[in-house]
UniProtKB/TrEMBL annotation:
PANTHER family with a match to the protein in the record: TR-TYPE G DOMAIN-CONTAINING PROTEIN, TRANSLATION INITIATION FACTOR IF-2-RELATED
Source domain of life: Bacteria
Composition skew (Low complexity), residue ranges: 82-93, 180-199, 227-246
Coiled coil: none
Summary of the function given for this chain in its UniProt record: One of the essential components for the initiation of protein synthesis. Protects formylmethionyl-tRNA from spontaneous hydrolysis and promotes its binding to the 30S ribosomal subunits. Also involved in the hydrolysis of GTP during the formation of the 70S ribosomal complex.
One cellular component term from this protein's GO annotations in UniProt: cytosol
Name of the protein described by the UniProt record: Translation initiation factor IF-2
Length: 884
């Protein structure tokens, strides 16, 4: 209890005193009698009633410009509750702050307008403005609806006749078109009222009324939706327009097919905020045309059709929507997706149905303009030479490749690591030379057999301490068959026994005339071991390149050859390619063999990522779908569809080739001869392998005599020994036939021949061979002798059995051995004897055949010179009459 001197104490009753305080709070003290003449002072506080509203205090900002508040004659609609009237003190800022006092809110009952504070007035005014805006909006809406209804009625009347005709057809389709297809359907496309209604401040342009719907219409539509049930689940809003000409059932069915979202966007794809009638009409007309496919309004295109095409690609070529093509196919009972591949016949039907003409192109046309595209002379610029190193085993090919690379790495970029990517580039006197990193003529010819001529110059390595060996000769023949110039590297000159002059003389016998012997072939004495004369060799290469005048156009799309490819665990398919024309860049789409892909990255021989690879540059390409084969050609194509088309074409080609192999070999003598006659070839290439040099020379002489002015045999390669894999690839690359005279092909060669569809023709009598060639050349083909290999058995031991003679204890190593079939005794790939079996036994029983892996006893009819280690080849012979 306080006793303040300033307090004014009033006597209210005789007993009570009220003390007043000067502030807004009145305080008084009432004295109360508590008996026995004693009183007690009770302090009484009377406060002035005060209401505050937090937002009023906060909202010190002026009220936005608006119409002045008008006294509302009546209460606003119940939907818009009036703002609560709030009593505000007229001058709250003059009151001292009362932080301890709780803020109380109270709405005085029965307050009249002139009693309201400024805040209350403002709130009421706002409510009124809002209510009026709503009313204005609804009035506008009603006017818009009316305009739309009129327009729709006109539109509907116009279309009534067309719809009637279409309705009959669609009723027929009913049930088959159960799938939802995303398509705009103007009559059925609903418009979201919320989206089409113009915003309140935006006046509706009278010349371009916008669509919208009244609540009544929405309700009607909802009723219809309820009747239709959940089938309309995808329709986001009911249809705005009632088309009287279209029956309700049909309308519903049409809507059921739609996902409708297109209605909510304008033609540019932006959300539609009120589409004009004209725009809607345009869309309707467009859709109707696409549905009716009126030929009179179509642009007729000539659609180029390959053997197969995807629906997407066909649609693009016709400039039609894929969805329309799919709808058409659905109508025909075929459910397809845009990515599905269809054949040219079906594509032609579709294109014709859509009113276009077609141009069927042959399969190979898909590659037209992609590979072997010629350049104008003026576009060509000098390019580095591409070099392959060949030679006999152990003459130092790998050592020489390594020596050149290492010398260059050391000289060029100190510490640089050159990675093996199948090829590398070195620099000599500022000029680049590309080396293919796979030594040997086999790889060279294998690539050539696939149609790729990647090499410009062949380096023939011959060891100076050795002489010209069988693979040296093979290399010479392979290079000559490819028309590639040779540079001789006489290696190992550091050796005391080295005799380079002997090598030069020996080369003469194989028609390799080196410069020092009066010829034109460049030769360099080198030592791969010591690095002697490597620069001279590089200079010789540059000189030869200059003579060849190697050029390419770097400013075009890239083309080239795959050198090697592998599947890398981390990087996926990695192909080392040699760019031969143009410039390859990341991001481009390439086709390589039957693989394709977008170039993800290019990595050079130093392991660096590069932005481009020009002519004669080897690079690793990342991003292919799979691994192409060495020798496959690659090229950049314009798009994925084209890439897919080419890769599919190539896969089919490979399948056809495999199928063709089943029916006959392309490398048979007869085929070669018939090809010769039809193509007007002047030379007939042959690979001849014989048991002795004498028989090869005899065959070559006999064939030479057969030559006429029109045609003559050309021996691409001949050598003593069995037929090897390298012979097969040479025959494949040179389109040559293989003749084995008293020799056989080893297993690898036989398998390669099967893979490549090359027939190896075996003879043991020269006159038979010559007769065959003669008959073929004169057009009188003898019956084709088709030999089928059955199996091989190796002789493990030879037993001499009394009264029976020599019996071979064998194991079947390949295929099977059959009694009654032909057999050959082969020693070191040379045929020793050909005849028939006298006996074929398993243990003590005579059997008709013995499969691979089993042991058996065999004896020849009238022949006993058999040895352990010999191979018995079993075969069957058929004679097929030739028909041309
Ligand atoms: N003294 C000497 N030895 C050499 C020279 N070049 C290579 N050699 C040796 O000859 C042997 C064969 O060398 P390679 O480089 O493997 O020969 P290659 O022709 O690649 O052999 P293959 O790969 O088997 O065909 C190795 O022992 C080398 O060290 C040389 O210039 N001088």
């Amino acid at each position: 209890m306080t006793d303040n001197k300033d307090d004014k104490t009033l006597s209210v009753t005789g007993k009570k005193t009220l003390t007043l305080k000067p502030s807004g709070v009145s305080q008084g003290t009432v004295r109360q009698d508590i008996g026995r003449g004693r009183t007690k002072a009770v302090v009484v506080e009377t406060r002035k009633r005060r209401l505050t509203r937090p937002e009023d205090e906060k909202a010190s900002a002026p009220v936005p410009q608006a119409r002045p508040a008008e006294p509302a004659p009546a209460a606003p609609r119940p939907a818009a509750p009036a703002a609560p009237r709030v009593h505000q003190p007229s001058a709250p800022q003059q009151r001292p702050p009362q932080p301890q006092q709780p803020v109380r809110q109270e709405r005085p009952r029965g307050a009249v307008l002139h009693d309201l504070s400024a805040g209350e007035m403002e709130a009421r005014r706002r409510a009124l403005v809002e209510a009026q805006a709503r009313e204005v909006e609804e009035t506008k809406q009603r006017a818009i609806d009316e305009a739309r209804r009129k327009a729709e009625a006109e539109e509907a009347a116009r279309r009534a006749a067309e719809d009637a005709a279409r309705r009959a057809e669609e009723v027929k389709e009913e049930g088959t078109q159960a799938q939802e297809v995303e398509a705009p359907a103007p009559a059925a496309v609903p418009v979201r009222p919320s989206e089409v209604r113009p915003a309140a401040p935006r006046p509706a342009a009278p010349s371009a009324p916008v669509f919208g719907r009244s609540r009544k219409e929405e309700e009607e539509e909802e009723e219809r939706g309820a009747a239709r049930g959940p089938a309309r689940g995808k329709v986001v809003a009911p249809a705005p327009a009632k088309v009287p000409a279209r029956p309700k059932g049909e309308e519903d069915r049409r809507r059921g097919k739609l996902t409708v979202t297109t209605a909510d966007v304008d033609e540019e794809g932006a959300p539609s905020r009120g589409r004009s009638l004209a725009s809607m009409r345009r869309r309707q007309e467009k859709f109707r045309r696409s549905q009716m496919q009126e030929p009179r309004e179509k642009i007729v295109r000539e659609v180029v059709l390959p053997e197969t095409i995807t629906i997407q690609e066909l649609s693009q070529r016709m400039s039609e929507r894929a969805v329309d093509v799919i709808k058409y196919l659905m109508k025909e009972g075929q459910m397809m997706k845009p990515g599905d591949v269809i054949d040219a016949d079906l594509a032609e039907i579709i294109a014709t149905e859509f009113g276009h003409t077609v141009k069927r192109v042959s399969e190979s046309d898909v590659e037209e303009g992609i590979f072997d595209v010629a350049d104008e002379e003026g576009e060509l610029l000098p390019r580095p030479p591409v070099v392959t190193i060949m030679g006999h085993v152990d003459h130092g090919k790998t050592s020489l490749l390594d020596a050149i690379r290492n010398a260059n790495v050391v000289a060029g970029e100190a510490g640089g690591i050159t990675q093996h990517i199948g090829a590398y580039q070195v620099e000599q006197n500022g000029q680049k030379i590309t080396f293919i990193d796979t030594p040997g003529h086999a790889a060279f010819t294998a690539m050539r057999a696939r149609g790729a001529q990647a090499t410009d110059i062949a380096i023939l390595v011959v060891a100076a301490d050795d002489s010209v060996m069988p693979q040296t000769i093979e290399s010479i023949n392979h290079a000559k068959a490819a028309g590639v110039p040779i540079i001789v590297a006489i290696n190992k000159i550091d050796k005391p026994t080295a005799n380079p002059q002997k090598v030069r003389t020996e080369l003469l016998q194989h028609e390799v005339f080196v410069e020092s012997m009066g010829g034109e072939v460049l030769d360099v004495e080198v030592s791969a071991k010591n690095g002697t004369n490597l620069d001279k060799l590089l200079e010789a290469i540059l000189l030869q390149a200059e003579i060849l005048d190697l050029k390419a156009n770097p400013n075009r799309t890239a083309e080239g050859t795959v050198i090697e490819a592998e599947l890398d665990r981390g990087r996926g398919a990695v192909a080392t390619v040699l760019v031969q024309k143009g410039t390859l860049r990341p991001g481009q789409i390439i086709v390589a063999g039957d693989q394709w892909g977008r170039v993800r990255a290019l990595v050079n021989d130093k392991g660096d990522h590069v932005k481009e690879a020009g002519p004669a540059m080897p690079v690793e390409v990342l991003g292919l779908s799979g691994t192409p084969a060495a020798g496959d050609k690659f090229a950049v194509v314009e798009n994925e569809a084209r890439a897919r088309e080419i890769s599919e074409y190539r896969l089919r080609l490979a399948r056809d080739k495999a199928a063709a192999r089943q029916s006959g070999s392309r490398g048979s003598l007869e085929q070669m001869m018939s090809q010769l006659q039809t193509s007007g070839m002047k030379e007939f290439p042959l690979v001849i392998k014989g048991d002795v040099q004498g028989s090869i020379e005899a065959i070559a002489g006999a064939l030479d005599k057969l030559g006429t002015e029109e045609v003559r045999a050309r021996i691409v390669h001949s050598a003593v020994g069995g037929v090897t894999e390298s012979d097969i690839s040479l025959a494949e690359a040179s389109n040559a036939a293989i003749i084995g005279f008293n020799v056989r092909a080893n297993t690898q060669a036989r398998q390669a021949a099967e893979r490549g569809g090359i027939e190896i023709r075996y003879y043991n009598i020269i006159y038979d061979l010559v007769d065959d060639v003669k008959a073929a050349m004169s057009g009188l083909l003898s019956p084709e002798r088709r030999e089928t290999f059955l199996g091989n058995a190796e002789i493990l031991e030879v037993f001499n059995i009394t009264k029976v003679g020599k019996v071979a204890g064998c194991r079947v190593t390949e295929g099977k051995v059959e009694r009654g079939a032909g057999v050959r005794l082969v020693r070191d790939n040379v045929v020793i004897h050909e005849g028939k079996l006298k006996t074929l036994k398993r243990f003590k029983d005579e059997v008709s055949e013995v499969p691979v892996g089993q042991e058996c006893g065999m004896a020849f009819e009238n022949y006993e010179d058999i040895r352990a280690g010999d191979v018995i080849e079993c075969f069957r012979v058929e004679h097929v009459t030739r028909t041309l």
